[in-house]
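HUMAN: Please help interpret these tokens:
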Amino acid sequence: MENERPPPPSDNETSGEERALRQRHNLIYYLKVWDLNNDRLLGHLIDINTDGLMLLSNQPIGLGREFSMEIRREDPDEQFMNIRCHACSRWERSDKNPSLYNTGFQLINPSEEVIAGIQDVIREYTFS
């Protein structure tokens, strides 16, 4: 299943070609993503890679907004750790369902811990 999401603009040293080589991973379970500034649900994680992510939300998020966010897992018995990161919204459009919105985020200086957490999400929650 291929996503038609356009690549985010390149703000760092990663070239557009290198970014295009990184596969986006569609999830089989949409994890919740929270705004840490107000503990408000931003949306549900639809796809992810080590450069960014896409959320599905009930309302528009807006472009060029920076967020401290947390990807949360609901099952406390699992050994999955929540991922806290910073990201900037780069694009937004209506979903196929017109009452929902898709927003693309570019991660801002993700730490090795964040990258490792994203790789865990990819291993655990993506289509094989």
Observations:
- The longest helix spans residues 112-125.
- The beta strands are 25-26, 32-35, 40-48, 52-57, 66-72, 83-94, 101-107.
